[in-house]
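Quick one, tokens below:
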């Protein structure tokens, strides 16, 4: 076990369900440790500690301010409702706490810019909580997509992220409340779709974004429960579509088709297994004579991982924090840039849903 003095000490603002997973990740990562947990009530924070069998050494606070004022906290994980991100992420940065922020990052790109500006001006690291970026499978897929001899140019992309939660979700979850998270399924599931599409395009924003209003379903609060959108890159001639929903069976798919090859992954966001993940690809596929079959089958690539992807995320974040803290290295702006591009596209989709019109970026 690493010396606690060399580990990045995390505080968590809020006891959301996803915080349970990140608590585990912080403890699994070799360069981080959970120092404090907080809620708006001390009772809820204590219940969280008991439910997750956290050690007695973890500080328990009945307000978020107490975590930010704790001099031993190096970084905070913020799983609060999206409407609260601006306030608490900016305050954290001003208190010189590095910020791991749950997605979607903000209610709009203007708010995110204020968060990123606060992080930059205070010299703290920013990263959003999209865990799949940190799985070694993602790097392996990028190798294939970037190989022009095998894959060629990206021509079209399709992604879907959906699930059908129990009825209590629709009545009580923050993702169904307009005042807490106005994006609904678009911000929750759609963020992953947008991120995967942009990843395949090396984070170049599309030229236009068009949602399908007729295919969009809102709840009684006006929050998106399901939608479909199309993205277009004029210069490249590339298109992408995605579907995100709280109203259909579990999907986490991404398919990328190139001029010479294609690949598909079924479990992008959460791999089927913690210790390994796979994707399928073909290159140079063609029909045989008389078109009675194919000249090849999809090949499966299996990638092993030393830690669960959420622990790998925490490990990378903590590595950056330690570099800033001990070696005066500047924060890595790449992660903020990725989040910002995703937020720009997310905003454009929401605008297209609301207006029923194509949006230019």
């Amino acid at each position: 076990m690493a010396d606690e003095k060399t580990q990045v000490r995390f505080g968590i603002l809020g006891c959301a369900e996803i915080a349970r997973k990140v608590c585990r990740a912080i403890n699994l990562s070799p360069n981080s440790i959970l120092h404090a947990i907080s809620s708006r009530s001390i009772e809820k924070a204590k219940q969280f500690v008991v439910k997750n069998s956290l050690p007695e050494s973890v500080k328990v606070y009945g307000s978020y301010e107490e975590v930010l004022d704790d001099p031993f906290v190096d970084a905070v994980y913020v799983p609060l409702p999206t409407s609260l991100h601006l306030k608490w992420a900016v305050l954290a940065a001003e208190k010189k706490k590095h910020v791991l922020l749950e997605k979607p990052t903000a209610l709009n790109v203007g708010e995110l810019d204020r968060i990123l500006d606060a992080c930059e001006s205070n010299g703290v690291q920013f990263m959003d909580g999209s865990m799949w970026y940190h799985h070694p499978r993602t790097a392996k897929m990028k190798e294939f997509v970037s190989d022009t001899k095998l894959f060629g140019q990206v021509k079209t992309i399709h992604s879907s992220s959906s699930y059908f939660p129990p009825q209590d979700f629709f009545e009580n979850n923050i993702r169904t409340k307009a005042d807490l998270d106005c994006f609904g399924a678009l911000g929750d599931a759609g963020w992953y779709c947008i991120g995967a599409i942009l990843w395949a395009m090396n984070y170049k924003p599309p030229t236009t974004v068009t949602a399908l209003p007729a295919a969009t379903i809102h709840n009684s609060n006006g929050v998106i429960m399901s939608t479909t959108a199309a993205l277009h890159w004029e210069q490249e001639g590339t298109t992408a579509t995605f579907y995100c929903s709280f109203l259909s069976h579990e999907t986490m798919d991404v398919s990328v088709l190139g001029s010479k090859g294609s690949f598909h992954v079924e479990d992008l966001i959460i791999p089927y297994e913690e210790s390994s993940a796979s994707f399928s690809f073909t290159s140079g596929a063609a029909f045989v004579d008389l078109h009675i079959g194919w000249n090849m089958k999809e090949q499966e690539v299996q990638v092993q991982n030393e830690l669960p992807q959420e622990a790998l995320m925490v490990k990378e974040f903590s590595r950056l924090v330690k570099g800033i803290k001990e070696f005066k290295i500047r924060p890595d702006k790449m992660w903020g840039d990725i989040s910002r591009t995703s937020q720009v596209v997310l905003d454009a989709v929401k605008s297209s849903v609301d207006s029923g019109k194509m949006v230019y970026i």
